[in-house]
Structures are given as C-alpha cells and as structure tokens.
Fold this sequence. Notes:
Helix 4 (301-314) packs across helix 5. This protein is an alpha+beta fold. A seven-stranded mixed sheet has the order 7-13-9-10-11-12-8. Strands 21, 22, 24, 26, 32, 34 and 35 form a seven-stranded mixed sheet that branches. Strands 14-3-4-6-1-17 form a six-stranded antiparallel sheet, with no helix packed on it. Among the domains are: 11-62, no CATH class; 92-156 and 257-293; 158-253; 315-392, 2-Layer Sandwich (GMP Synthetase, Chain A, domain 3); 471-583, no CATH class.
Amino acid sequence: MAITNFTSLDFEDIKDTIKRYIRSDSKFTDYDYEGSTLSLIIDMLAYNTYISAYNANMLSNEVFLDGATLRENVVSLARNIGYVPRPRKASVAEVYFNVDTAEFPVLPRSLTLKKGIVAVNSEQFTNKNLTFCIPEDITSIVKDDQAEFDIKVYEGALVQQRFEVSEFDVNQRFILDNVGIDYTTLRVSVYGDAFTDDKVVYDLATSIREIDGDSKVYFLQEIPDERYELIFGDNIFGKKLENGNIVEVSYIVSNGEDGNGADLFRFVGNIVDNNNNVIDRDISIIQTTNSASGGLDIESVKSIKNYAGRIYASQNRAVTTNDYEAIVRKIYPEVESINAFGGEELSPPKFGRVFITIKPQSGNYISNSLKDSIKRELRKYSVAGIVPEILDTKYLFVECDTSVYYNSNLVSSANTVRQKVIRTLNNFADSDEMNMYGSRFKYTKFTSLIDKSDESITSNITEIRIRRDLRAVLNRRAEYEICFGNQFKILNQKGYNIKSSGFRVSGISKQVYLSDIPAADGETGEVVLITVQDIPPNVGNSQYIVDSPSASIVRRRVGTIDYIKGEIKLNAINIVSTEVEQNSIIQISASPNSNDVIGLHDLFLQFDVNYSSVNTIIDNISSGADPTGSRYISTPSYSDRNVIRLVENTLS
C-alpha cells in the first residue's frame, strides 16, 4: 500500500484519509467501517494523528520569534539576538522636605536619608498601599540650620539579596527571586569575602564594546516567570568572580503603572546625622514637586517581537530611520510611539539631519533636558555628519459628526443607541488603530464599527473633520505655520472652509476667527480674520449655527493656505488672548479631501470623542412605519454650516 500524505488537520478529514488508505488493500475494500469495531480503532488513530499534528505545529511555531506565543519562548529567542525586554518600571515622584536643626542639642554637620522606604501615599489617592523608596543613601549638608532634601522617590519596595560565590558549584546561578523588578534600579556590589567591608561596584553592561577582562560589569537576562538572572564575566569579557566573593544586590520591586498619579505623601523614612544618631523630629511635611509618573508594566510579548529584530538589525549603529527608532527605544524605554524621518523628505529639504518625534508613555511631551540627554546618547551610535533633532509631538485630531439610523422595533430608546455608539467611539479612540505615528484613520472600518454598536442600527452618515491646536504666543508679534499633512477639501468656493475657535488680536475690539478665501486655481488661498454676531453663552456644536451671512471679514491677507499640502501659514500677528484659555490654544479644523486620514511625519494621530457628535434618527423604512420611504429623513454627507468652531464639548 502507498504511503498517504495528510493534507488536512481536521479530525474528520484525517479519518477519511485513514479509511481510504485501508481500502487500498483488497481485503478491506467492502468493509463496513461505521458499524464495526474497526471504527473505534480508526477514531483513536485519527485522534492521535490530530493531537500529534497540532503539537508539531505549535512546536514549530515556538522555535521562531515571529510565531512564538509563550513569553518564555519569545524572551529566549530575543535573548539569542542580544535583546533584553524592558522591565516593569517604577513610577517616580519628585518631592521636597527639610529638617530644621536649630533646636537640636548638638548641631550636626550633615544628615543622611537612608536607602529604603521614604514615604507612603495618602489614602485619598488609591485604596492600594503604595510605598516610595530610594535605592541609595542621600546626604544633605546642614546650612543655616536647615538640611534640605530635593529628591526623586521610586514606587515599590527596596529588596536586598546576597550570594556567596562557590567554585565547587559548577552550575551556580545568580537568580533574583522576585517578580516585578525594575532592573534600572539594580545596585550590584562585590565583597572580597564575608568578613570584609571593602566592596567593588559592578555596572550593567549593555554591549561588549569597550569591555575587557578587567571591566567590573555584569550582564542581565530575563528567565521564566518574569524573573532575572545576573551573569558575570570570564576574564575575557568582564572580570570573573573569585571563590568566596560575596555578591550583594539591591533592587526595587514595583507595581508598575499602578503607582502613576500619586501626589500626596507622608514621611516614614529613616534619617541619621553624621554621628549616626537617628533623627525623628523637626521634619517638615513632604511637598510634591512632580506627581508620580513613568510607571510601566513589563514589556509585552507583542512589543518584544516587534522590536527585538529591529534592535538586532541596527547593530548598535544609527544609519537608517528604523535604526534611530530602535536605538531611541533602547535609550529611553518610556516611549509610547516614535517616528524618525530624514530631512530630505521635507519641503524644502534639510539634508544631513534626521528628525525624531517621541510620544512618552505618560504626558504629552518630553522635557528639553531629556531631549538633550537622548541626543547625547545618540552620538555614540550616529554616523558622522548626520545631526539628530528631536521635535515636540504635534497632535492631529480626528473628529466626527455621525447621524445613526436605527430600527425602533429592536431597541427601547434612542438614548440607548446613542450611548452604545459613544461607547464605540471611546473604545476606538483608545485602540491601536490610532494613538501612534504613521497610523491611518480608516473611514470604512470606522463606520462599520458604528453600525456594529447595536443590532438596531441600520446605517450611518458620518462626516469627518481634522483639527490642529495652535499654541499662541500672547502679546507678541509672531508667525505661525500649521501643517495637517492631509489635503483640505474645498466645500465652498467663496470661503469658510477652515474654522477656528475665537481669539483676540491687537487692533480689533471684537473676538475674531480664522477663515479662508480660495484662489481661482483651487489649490491655494488667502487666510482672513472674521467676526460674527454675538453668540449666546453655553451653546454646543449641535445646538447653534453660525452661518456665513452672520460673518464679516475684518482683516485680509492674514496669511496663506495650501489646500493640497494641508498647510496654513500666518503672517506676523499679535494675539492678545484666546477663547480656549488653557495653554492659550486656538483650535483650527477643516474637512479632509479624503476620509482616510494619515498621521504624516511628526503628526500623532488621535480621535477626539469630546468634539464629536452623535445624532440618532429612526429608520422609518426598516421599522415599517414608512415602507414606501416617502417620509424618509436624508442626511447630507457634508452638513456642518458653521463658519467657526464652537468650543464647548459636544458629548460632555
């Protein structure tokens, strides 16, 4: 009998294949397979084949980084190419307190805050008992009877472990016992033996460059159960440990993201003076300079699979834009999204420069000091002649006005439909479809999600807007350039295609708004300032219409607009105040020429639910109230007749 090739892993198909194989023997040609004991044997063979094929398939997947699903396998494969996953990061708060020594019997020269726990969070913040500590002692000199501590505290508990090196244990491993370690807080010291106080501090090595046999370094790798192992040198790459050495390790075990936001603290630390006397009096309350932030959970399997190969491909040198993205993540792990692009892609081009935009995990921007630190580290990897520049994050917001048609026979009320659609919009705003550089808003996918919000929904008509927020420099003449990275749609040849929130400028008493007048070519135009009739207070986008007859142009040639490039340039203008007072913002919006919106270059794409609107309409045809459709309510695709932005949140 010929060997049978199995082409399907389905149980029934395997059974049929076995039967065909047996029938190829003339003795079993007319055998009744369904009504005989042989049927049970065939079932067992098929089941065994099915399980074996499944296990073989899973096993083959787990030996490749792209196909592996178990974390320990993904980490092991990433380790083979030199990638160490990001640890669980402790959130960090900046706090200040002082000790008044004026009433001390003996005036100390200095006070030392001992490493370990320093503060606990206030109960008002969370029902979790969070502690904040420091990994090393901090000493403050007493000056004018005051010892000041302006410090960073890390959420979590400080843990210490000791290992004794034994040359008789050939399989000795230095494994850290705890889960949730922030290995950036690791402090490793090596003592000659158990009876000496002299120690040598070892540093974490991230590569073998510039390391020789005398380097006091250790290597780190993640092992199963999200724990870590220390590996020391062999006198070729790093100094080898000797028999009897004592390895002392301290680290912080953190709760990751749970510590973010803490800003009320109570002091519970340990302070001693220069004579090692405990200080427990005249300690001020803790003042919070910066709330706890930066806490992260351990790097996910998806992220490891995405970036391990990129780090390896960069080979510790920054040449391509992918190299820069991978290396910046290595330097600054708290990156939520990053994009790098060459200056030659700009108009006009800027050769010899690479531009990097970073969206941090917490907050919207990174500080100037952090930018400088990242650029300094990048110099170790950059090719000569290439200058990296780090740009502030620029947000491109997508908003929608959606009219949802629903069958009233399948739902209790219109509000139920509306709330489910709003929930869908919120879920979409938090999804991976948005919230990253280079992402794309996919219109058809978005509208299909709205349709799936509830079984009663029959269709929707959804209008899309894009918005940028201009941060104005008040009481000073300044020029502005606002890039949307998407072509504008000209809805009205007479103008009013771009809309803005209100602001006041020098020389005009009333509140003004930005608008436009297209040129004859339909590609460029003129930016103008307009005023409108007084608007009643507390109106929302869906409640009030400010149309073109109520608008008046008060200043021409304020700037230019390029509808093709999606760029607005404002000439020097003195802005006195803005309607959106927070951060002196002027909101500017337009309709995109394509409903598929992309986040180009340094634009971080986000969906803004607060400035979107949801309108529900009964589908009289589907509900049976109007089978002929004579009373059907149609909704135009472009229905916004406002010539300005009304800044009150629509869905608040």
